[in-house]
Design goal:
Elements: E1 11-15, H1 19-31, E2 35-39, H2 42-47, E3 56-60, H3 68-78, E4 83-88, H4 93-101, E5 106-109, H5 114-141, H6 144-149, H7 156-168, E6 175-178, H8 185-195, E7 203-207, H9 213-221, H10 229-232, E8 237-241, H11 248-259, E9 271-276, H12 280-285, H13 291-297, E10 300-303, H14 314-328, E11 335-336, H15 338-346, H16 352-366, E12 371-372, H17 379-386, H18 398-412, H19 417-424, H20 428-441, H21 444-457
Parallel strand pairs: 1-2, 1-3, 3-4, 4-5, 6-9, 6-10, 7-8, 8-9, 11-12
Helix pairs in contact: 5-8, 11-13, 14-16, 18-19, 19-20
C-alpha cells in the first residue's frame, strides 16, 4: 500500500465514457485511500461539483457532448487551483497537447499504467500541499498585523524572509528570531504561530527585558498561587523577547523544559520562540549565554533584515504610513516630493521600520501642503539633505524639473508608473503620457535600453 492509503489521500474527480476504464481506475484509486467520484460524461461530472471540490480532475479527452478540454476549463472556473490530468487514446495525442496548452499538468496514453498514475497523483498531492501552505502563510501575512509592523514590500530581502518563513512554519521545533530593534521580530513569531502546528493553542509572550531577576522564576515557572507562563503556553507557543536578558539560573530551568518536551503529551508540549538583537551563538561563545540552551533553541533561526537591507521597500512603506496617519489625523496627504522621498531612502534608519513610521507621522503633522516636503521631515533628515547637490540647476524650466522628477521617481520604483504616480501625487495616465513624450523626444532611447533589458533578464552570477 502506498503513502496514499496511510492517510495522505486526495480527492479526485474521474471522468471517462468507457465504463471498463472508469470502473477499474475508481476501484484501484479507492484501494489506495483516495476519495474518488466518477462520471461517464462531462455534464454529469459538473453536477458532482455541487458542494464538493476535487483536488485533481482525471479526465478523458475525447468524450461525446463535451470534450475533456472544455470540461477542464469549466471545472477550473468553479474549482480554482484544481490540477488536471488528461487521458488519451494513442491516436489523439494532439488533443492531449491541446489540453496541456489549456492548463493540464500531465497527460497519459491509454491503456493507463496504474503505477505511473500513482506517481503523478503523489507528485500533485505534494505540490497541492505546498501551495496550500503558501496560501495559508500568505493569508497570515496579508492581515492587518503586517501593516501594523510595516512588513510591506517586494525587495529581495523581504521575499527571501517570506520564503524562509514558509520553510520554518510547519515545524514545531524551537526558533530563534534575531534582528535589530524595530525590524518586526515579534510579528515574525505571530506569523509562525498562526501557520504552525500549534496554531490552535495559546500564544504567550514574555518581555524578558522587563522582568526583574528576582521575579523571573515566578513569572515563567509559577508558584503555589500561579501556574506560570510556561504552563499557560501548553499546547501552544511561548515567545520570549530579548531572551539574552534572562539570568543564568532561569536559562538553566528553560533548558530543562526543552529537554523534557519529547516525553510530554502533544497537548502539554510548548513550542518555544525567542527573539534577540544579538547573535546568540556569539554570546554563548563569550560566556554571556548558556551554550547548551543556545543549541536547544537554535534548531531553526530566522534573521530579520534591517530597513537598510530593504531600501527598495521604503517608498511603499512611507506612502503607506503617510496615508494611515493622514487618515488618523484627518489630513489630506497625497504623497512626497521626490526630494523628500530621496531623503527617506538615503537615511540609515537605526530604528528601522518603527523609526520610519514615527518620522512619517511627524511629517504628516508638519505638512502644510498635499505633498510632504523636505522641510516637513525630522531635523536629522533635513540636515543630511542640505549637504546634497540640488536635483536640478537653478534657472531650469518647469518642464525640465517635471521631467527630472518623473524619471527619477520611475527609476526609484523600478519603472512602475502606478507607484510613481502615487509618490508624485499625479495620475498614472499623466506619468504614462509624459514618458511617451520623453521617448518621442529621444527616438534612440528605446534602442539603447533594449540590451540593458536583456541583460536584466539574465540570471545573476551568484
Amino acid at each position: 500500500m502506498s503513502d496514499s492509503a496511510s492517510g495522505r489521500s486526495t480527492t479526485i474527480l474521474l471522468v471517462d465514457d468507457e465504463a471498463s476504464t472508469r470502473n477499474a481506475l475508481t476501484e484501484l484509486l479507492r484501494d489506495e485511500g483516495h476519495v474518488v467520484r466518477a462520471a461517464s460524461d462531462a455534464f454529469k461530472a459538473l453536477g458532482l461539483l455541487d458542494g464538493w471540490q476535487p483536488q485533481i480532475l482525471l479526465t478523458d479527452v475525447q468524450m461525446p457532448g463535451m470534450s475533456g478540454v472544455e470540461l477542464m476549463e469549466r471545472v477550473g472556473q468553479r474549482v480554482p487551483g484544481v490540477a488536471t490530468v488528461v487521458m488519451t487514446a494513442f491516436g489523439s495525442v494532439d488533443n492531449a497537447v491541446l489540453a496541456m496548452r489549456a492548463g493540464a499538468v500531465a497527460y497519459m496514453v491509454k491503456p493507463i499504467q496504474f503505477a505511473e498514475l500513482l506517481m503523478i497523483i503523489d507528485r500533485l498531492r505534494d505540490e497541492l500541499a505546498l501551495r496550500q501552505e503558501n496560501e495559508q502563510l500568505q493569508r497570515a501575512i496579508d492581515t492587518r498585523e503586517v501593516e501594523e509592523v510595516g512588513w510591506i514590500g517586494q525587495s529581495r530581502a523581504a521575499r527571501e524572509l517570506l520564503e524562509l518563513l514558509h520553510r520554518v512554519a510547519p515545524s514545531d521545533a524551537p526558533v530563534v528570531v534575531h534582528g535589530e530593534r524595530g525590524t518586526g521580530k515579534e510579528f515574525i513569531t505571530r506569523v509562525l504561530h498562526r501557520v504552525g502546528s500549534c496554531s490552535e493553542g495559546p500564544r504567550v509572550v514574555v518581555q524578558c527585558r522587563a522582568l526583574e531577576e528576582s521575579m523571573e522564576a515566578r513569572e515563567l515557572f509559577g508558584d503555589e498561587g500561579s501556574p506560570g507562563r510556561v504552563a499557560e503556553a501548553r499546547g501552544g507557543t511561548l515567545v520570549l523577547t530579548d531572551v539574552e536578558e534572562l539570568s543564568s539560573a532561569t536559562q538553566a530551568r528553560l533548558l530543562d523544559v526543552l529537554r523534557h518536551q519529547a516525553d510530554a503529551e502533544p497537548a502539554q508540549r510548548v513550542r518555544m520562540m525567542v527573539t534577540t538583537r544579538h547573535d546568540l551563538r556569539h554570546e554563548a561563545e563569550r560566556g554571556r549565554f548558556r551554550e547548551d540552551l543556545y543549541y536547544h533553541l537554535g534548531v531553526l533561526e530566522v534573521p530579520v533584515p534591517s530597513l537598510r537591507q530593504r531600501r527598495d521597500d521604503i517608498p511603499e512603506l512611507a506612502l503607506h504610513f503617510a496615508k494611515r496617519h493622514a487618515s488618523k489625523h484627518r489630513k489630506y496627504i497625497r504623497g512626497f516630493t521626490p526630494r523628500a522621498m530621496s531623503a527617506l531612502v538615503g537615511h540609515p534608519w537605526p530604528g528601522n521600520v518603527h523609526q520610519l513610521e514615527i518620522a512619517v507621522e511627524r511629517a504628516v503633522l508638519s505638512a502644510g501642503h498635499r505633498d510632504i516636503e523636505p522641510k516637513d521631515l525630522p531635523r536629522d533628515l533635513m540636515e543630511a539633505l542640505s549637504n546634497d547637490e540640488p536635483p536640478v540647476i537653478p534657472g531650469a524650466s518647469m518642464a525640465e524639473i517635471e521631467r527630472y522628477a518623473i524619471l527619477r521617481t520611475l527609476e526609484h520604483v523600478g519603472g512602475s508608473t502606478k507607484k510613481a504616480a502615487e509618490l508624485l501625487g499625479i495620475s498614472t495616465r499623466k506619468v504614462q503620457y509624459r514618458v511617451s513624450e520623453y521617448r518621442d523626444d529621444e527616438p534612440e532611447h528605446e534602442t539603447e535600453r533594449e540590451p540593458e533589458r536583456e541583460r536584466e533578464r539574465e540570471p545573476e552570477a551568484d
